[in-house]
Amino acid sequence: MEQPVPPDHPGRVTNRHHRRVGRALAPYLLSLPSGLWLLLLFLVPLVLMLSLSLKTCSPSTGACVMAWHWGEFSSEMSLYHQEFITSLYFAAASTVVDLIISFPIAYWIAFYGGRRKNFFLLMLLVPFFVSFVIRTIVWEFVLSNNGVILGALKHIHLLPSGFHILGTSYAVMAGLAYNYLPFTALPLYVALERIDRRVLEAAYDLYATKRVGFMKVIMPLAVPGIFAAFLLTFIPMFGDYVNQEILGGTSNTMIGTVIQNQFLVTLDYAGGASLSAILLVVALLGIFLYARLLGSRTIEQYL
Amino acid sequence: MASATQKAVGGKYMSIGATKATESKAPKGARSSGRAGKIANLESADVEFINVTKTFNDANAVDDLNLRVEAGEFFSLLGPSGCGKTTSLRMLGGFEDPTKGRILLGGQDVTNLPPYRRDVNTVFQSYALFPHLNVFENVAFGLRRQRIEKNEIKRRVGEMLEIVDLPNYEKRQSSQLSGGQQQRVALARALVNQPKLLLLDEPMSALDAKLRRQMQIELKRIQTQVGITFLYVTHDQEEAMTMSDRLAVMWHGRIEGMGSPKDVYDNPTTEFVASFLGASNLLAGSIVSTSGSRTTIAIDGGGTIVVPADRVPDLGGSAAVKVGVRPEKIGILPAGTAVAADHNSIGGRVRVSTFTGVGNQYIVETTLGVEVTAYAQNIGHQLAPRSGDEVVLSWPVEHTFTVKPLPTTVEINETEGD
Q1: Which domain, by its residues, includes B387?
Q2: Residue B358 has what pLDDT?
Q3: Is B361 part of a structural domain of the chain?
Q4: 0.90 cut: is pTM over it?
Q5: Which residues of A touch B189 (CB under 8 A)?
Q6: How far lies B313's CA from each of A298, B251, B357, in Å?
Q7: Which ranges in B129-270 belong to alpha helices (H)?
Q8: What pLDDT is attached to residue B59?
């Protein structure tokens, strides 16, 4: 048994004091691991990247000095606005393609998957266990001029021998759409799966046909999922460079390719950093828009 | 408060048309009959299940059901979880197709009609309000599908929200409502379509006991007011007895007992009904003789009990029977008291005496070797026997019933899972 400490005992005061400090510190201590993680691997690189965009770098040594060179942004934009527009167009078109393809898939799994829902979802994801780059290179084979598809079609003279897809915008968009399909399908699935079937039954009970039930109940309830799917697909596509590098040609350079070249080929760190900053702003705008329209809490449910 | 909102709504009608205005003017004076004037006497339909069977995975959820619900009746399907009551209701609503048999609504065969082509609306167990729509749009949903004119929709929704006591709630989101309010919206959403039949699937299971009792009275009031057939599914016997004109007790997909609540309660026809609906003391025995209007039954533990002869069911040749009496019909008297004429009696010793507020519940170890539960109301002037006291249990022969014993003792599950 511990000796009871009288209330006015000095030892008791410090004890209580310690306890109070400990309690106040607890949340900070608990968040320390994740806080450090975010600081080191997210915040520091971000600040470095943003500050780099304002520096001027010596092309010969690669050393950079802070110059507060705000003009970098406008000069990069005037140089590369075409690539931005191309990226925007590719990302938007491929996202729409993904939405169109994955909506029926997600709908079918959510409503008719029965007990095998998880199996079907796994099947959807199986190709994505293979590395991103390798998958894209395989697409290069699939779409190549005398490959499995085009070769066969040319052989039976359905296509002229000069026909090609590789190098065109279509090849890039096909690659993008293929590579990002799960990012569209999964949030859609989550949104559709979450719809209370009894609510749908209530609609049928209230004179809604299957079609009206779909339009008036399923679609409105799937909107947050569609928007989340759009964001999750569109943003990474916008900065993607692998698909364009492997499947595209010289006339359809995307902004990701430019950034990659600036960092790795021309060693224009400031230019690459400022283009990355612009990309970041575009992505943030999208998320801001989502939060404004559908509430920030709904984002958490899908990410 | 009610009259103020009535005036407001009444004002809205007047701009619509003269006939509507006079209609709404009439009830303003009388408060109690005020609401009744509005959508009373809707067209109502009778329901008929003819040899309906529904099979799920080789098991009969509903087994050769024959049931007739009269137009304008408040009818309850009562039974434990998995007894087939909800499946029956869903078949009537069009959400399940019967494996066999036909369902008639107002004489018309609706067996194969999809839900949206039936003149039936449902109040779902979980309310199933549309989460993306506000109260007004929830209630207006069915009317919009029927392409009813905009002003008419506005009028009918306003009227209906007033009937369910939710005036001025049009703009609220369903997530902002309490359970009881959501239930009222669900009811309004179904009733606003003026269906010939309203299906209610355990609509009160999510409400607390106090609110539930309040809603029971409310629901009965609304049913009397609109005059349409209500088919109510519940596992709560008190709820079913409180509101129903007639009820059917279901078990294993079959109807075990049907009639007015009093009828089914006082004169249960099967052992299941006797033990599911209220509490029963059931004593196994066999028929000895019948003379005139009385049948004598020898109880297995010794002694005899007399029952009205017309209450002995068809036993299919066997003499084995169970004699039942409700605990509240039993009078508990000090040992040695003379038993009145035409009464049954058993001697015993009080084992447990429990004060429940409204009464005393006794468990009496009888001379027949079985325990019998008796219930005495707390009216104050009796001296309550205590545990250990020798007593005589006595009750009128008229309050004794007999049922055919079940082949084996069964566990009756009163809790409802889904």
Answers
A1: 267-403
A2: 85
A3: yes
A4: no
A5: 202, 206
A6: 62, 19, 37
A7: 135-145, 150-163, 179-191, 209-226, 237-243, 261-266
A8: 86
pLDDT of the residue at A298? 62
Domain annotation covers residue B320? yes
CA-based nearest residue in chain B for residue A217? B130
pLDDT in tens, A45-69: 889 888 888 888 776 776 777 777 7
DSSP, collapsed to helix, strand or coil, labels residue B96 as coil
Question: Burial, A104: exposed, middle or buried (Cβ in 10 Å; 0-12, 13-18, 19+)?
Answer: exposed
To the nearest whole Å, the CA of A199 is away from the closest chain B CA by 5
Cα A113 to Cα A188, B96, B107, B348, distances in angstroms: 14, 19, 38, 62
Residue in B128, B132, B141 nearest the CB of A198: B128
Q: Which of B114, B121, B132 sits opposite A206 (nearest CB)?
A: B121
pLDDT > 90? residue A245:
no
Nearest-Cα residue of chain A relative to residue B191: A206
- Tokens at residue A250, please? 């010289």
Residues of B in contact with A221 (CB under 8 A): 131-132
CB contact (8 A) between residue B114 and residue A207: no
In a domain, A23, yes or no: no
Using alpha carbons, list the distances in angstroms from residue A7 to A17, B80, B99: 13, 61, 78
Report the distance separating Cα B103 and Cα B86, nearest Å: 15
Whole domain around residue A293: which residue ranges? 69-302
Q: Cβ separation of B116 and A208 shorter than 8 Å?
A: yes
CB contact under 8 A, B193 and A206: yes
Please, what sign has the CA dihedral across residues B321, B326, B331, B332? positive
Q: Which residues contact B77 (CB under 8 A, 6 or more apart)?
A: B85, B88, B89, B231, B232, B233, B234, B247, B248, B250
Tokens 């009830």 belong to: B27
| pLDDT confidence of residue B292 | 84
Q: Report if residue B52 sits inside a domain.
A: no
Rounded to whole angstroms, the maximal C-alpha distance in chain B is 79
Give pLDDT tens digits for A182-196: 999 999 999 999 999
Q: What's the pLDDT tens digit per position in A1-16? A: 445 555 555 555 566 7
CATH number for the domain including A239?
1.10.3720.10
CA B140 to chain A, closest CA, distance in angstroms equals 10
Whether residues A206 and B94 touch (CB distance < 8 A) is answered with no
In-domain check, residue A43: no
Q: Residue A297 corresponds to which amino acid? A: R
Q: How many structural domains does chain B have?
A: 2
Q: Does A221 sit within 8 Å of B132, measured CB to CB?
A: yes
Total number of domains constituting chain A: 1
Q: Output the pLDDT for position B13.
A: 32
Whether A245 maps to a domain, the answer reads yes
Q: From chain A, which residues contact B within 8 Å (Cβ)?
A: 196, 198-199, 201-209, 212, 216-217, 220-221
Tokens 């309310």 belong to B127
Whether residue B142 and residue A199 make contact (CB cut-off 8 A), yes or no, is no
Cβ pairs A/B, distance under 8 A:
63
Say what the pLDDT of residue B8 is. Answer: 37
Is A198 part of any domain?
yes
B55: left (phi over 0), alpha (psi -120 to 50) or beta: beta
Q: What is the CATH number of the domain that holds B392?
A: 2.40.50.100
B183 in a structural domain = no
Kindly list the residues from chain B whose CB atom is less than 8 angstroms away from the CB atom of residue A220.
132
Per the document, the length of chain A is 303
Q: What is the mean pLDDT of each run of 10 residues along chain B (418 residues)?
A: 38 32 34 39 80 90 91 92 90 92 90 89 91 93 93 93 88 88 91 91 85 87 88 91 93 91 90 88 88 88 87 78 91 85 90 87 89 85 78 92 75 44
- Residues from chain B that touch A209, judged by Cβ atoms under 8 A, are 114, 116
Complex confidence, ipTM? 0.75
Check if the beta carbon of residue A217 is closer than 8 Å to that of residue A156.
Answer: no
